[in-house]
Structure prediction request, 342 residues.
Amino acid sequence: MKANKGLNIKRLEPSRLSEVVELADRIFKPKDGSMGANFPILFSKKNARNILVIEEDNKIVSMVGVYYAYAQIFTSRIKVVFMGAVCTDENYRGKGYATRLTYEAAQIALKNDAALMMIHGDNDIYRNFGAVDAGTYFTIEIKPTQNSYSHKLKIATESDLKKMAIWHSKEPVRFIRSFANFKIFHKVGHAWDGHAKTFIGDKVYITVVEKEKTYHCIEFAGDPNEVAALIQNFVNEYGKLTVHLNLGNKDCISRLLLEIPQQRQFYGTMRVLDKFKLLDQLKDYLDESISGTDKGMLNVKLSNFDDSDFTKIVFGSAEGLPQFTHEIFPVPLPDYHGMDYI
Ligand SMILES: CC(C)(COP(=O)(O)OP(=O)(O)OC[C@H]1O[C@@H](n2cnc3c(N)ncnc32)[C@H](O)[C@@H]1OP(=O)(O)O)[C@@H](O)C(=O)NCCC(=O)NCCS
Prediction:
């Protein structure tokens, strides 16, 4: 990775949090709204030092928002670094600042043991850095039916959080979410750049975001039969819904809702930062499926690919794959456009 010699890249001092929120608001929320309010975990004093900034003329002129999470993938847990809210003050663009910050964020993330970077966005900066479309995600479209179900639509309240957190913790493919963060996400009710509403059943919840006049179910947890019933109830009451699925939950939910899943792109880009670190973090998952000898051979073959192709091979890609397949791939990955989205 490129070095960042001669450039004044700093970790954000918590006392200067309001300056980066102002910069991000100016660029992403020119009319109204607040990045600080929408993304309280990213823009928190606790996380401030993960945010990287460049200062010039005594002010912060460029930033990348960074925070860390763990993706649970059946028996394995990988450390992921999220990057978003990347912006440069209009008067300081084209000087390579966002590019340098991206490389620096990756270097620091590697030192912090993160194996995968998931980026909110897709542009030349991230593509030049080696990030690609990857991750195998699906959608199903649900339309109203004549059937009605006994599960009534009830908006989840704070008193439901304990149950919801327990159901979420049992999902096989998810981001690990502390109860405290669960509470914050619920309170903020912001996901995928929209207002998120969570509906609760006896044994499940579904979270829905309205985006460009279409409803999207971006997260659910709990008993699959009841998830399907609650989804159908939502559709019968509100209208058409797109349900977003990952490789860990698509078969069950799409079968119950009698729809054929369509593969879709990841809404952003991602890149494995260190192939061997990633394989090591996936060890338990891989050990269950392939023998030690096969794994050794697989590692050798995979080492021939660059990080971008490796990312596509391991997690799949809607953009097409390099000339290499293996039955254990793609590995499921949670989608960070759920409530964990920054
Ligand atoms: C995108 C943005 C962060 C780039 O910041 P920057 O400090 O000027 O970036 P750099 O100087 O490192 O790189 C500019 C490069 O990015 C490319 N680029 C990609 N998207 C761009 C955009 N929306 N605006 C300007 N440049 C963009 C340019 O082509 C240029 O490529 P080059 O290296 O071949 O010249 C800045 O334009 C910005 O704040 N835009 C608004 C917010 C935004 O879109 N953020 C990205 C969210 S995905």
